[in-house]
Known about the structure:
Elements: E1 2-6, H1 16-30, E2 34-40, E3 53-57, E4 60-65
Parallel strand pairs: 1-2, 2-4
Antiparallel strand pairs: 3-4
Amino acid sequence: MKFLTVTPSLFPIKGGAETVVKNNSIGVGRIGIVTDVATFNMGRKWNPPSKGETQDMFGLKVFKVSGLARAIHTS
Length: 75
């Protein structure tokens, strides 16, 4: 069985939801369920890079997608 958790943020952002997603994903992995996580690609200051990436974190495959774009104002 495979499982995908979708969350707005994950490490390096630290908070309650991020901790629950991390702990639950690791926990179900221990009982044999393959778990991946999809989240936005953001740094500590909620500043998203322009591209997505895939990382291995905590023994999980984490898909970081670009979800926010900076607005360019022209006058």
